[in-house]
Amino acid sequence: MERLLEGAFAVVTGASKGIGKGIAKTFLNHGATVIITGRTEKDLQNTVKELSNFGAISYIVADISKAADIKNMVDTAIERHGKIDILCSNAGIFPMSLIENMSEEEWDYINTVNVKGMFLAVKECIPYMKKQGGGNIVITSSITGPVTGYTGWSHYGATKAAQLGFMRSAAIELARYGIRINAVQPGNIETEGLLSMGEEYYNTMKKSIPLGFLGKPEDIGNAMVFLASDLAKFITGQTIVVDGGQILPESSDAMEVPIEK
Ligand code: NAP
Q1: Is 156 a catalytic residue?
Q2: Atom of ligand 1 nearest to the CA of 62
Q3: Complete domains list, the chain, with CATH
């Protein structure tokens, strides 16, 4: 297998579990040196232990909802490796809440984690990426918000669409420094977070995916590797939907065979 990120230094936020962990593993398999972040040190330690078979990996404890933690995350990564070639802004939460019950605090918190955390991480990396003559930023957005909707996820969908709005202007603004920024829009991916939503949710989602199975975190990792590699050197401000075809059916009947033989 060709290693597409050989020699690159990457930071992946929210990577002790789930999609972030899968991205970290895929980056390692492609030759990158990886720093993973999250809030729970024990989980980070376990993940570093598990993934160290695949390459050079370390962790930084950082809560993406806190500006001081984000600054410390980027400064520490620079102290450790001298540069950040790839920032993967992945940390995100997806609690459910009906609009009529949703508090201002709930709205603010999800926006702080999913949108402001991404913005501050990108902002902190820019001076270093400018100095090193370029860099790559990849964002974990979602199909929920930019393309689809789901009862209880109006606030979540708003944050995932906001990430793409941010990305498009950032792509133009940062292109002059050789910094590319792109996003992946996952459909339903088997992560700890998704599995915690229960068996009924899992089975309903499986039925709505034309390919007939949920994705794995590494499926998102593969799209991220492509976007962060030189194979995508002429691509910025774009998204890749990785969802097994989930956004395609016009109705639940669209996957049935309507014509009798
Ligand atoms: P997950 O299984 O719940 O894992 C979330 C990771 O983020 C953990 O490592 C968690 O560690 C970390 N995290 C949570 N809050 C954080 C904070 N404030 N600061 C730093 N790290 C934090 O979630 P996931 O399913 O992998 O989702 C990851 C991303 O993919 C999110 O942006 C989500 O919107 C997106 N996504 C997921 C799916 C899906 O099907 N799973 C679909 C579309 C998009 P700590 O709790 O220890 O901090």
Answers
A1: yes
A2: 20
A3: 9-240 (3.40.50.720)
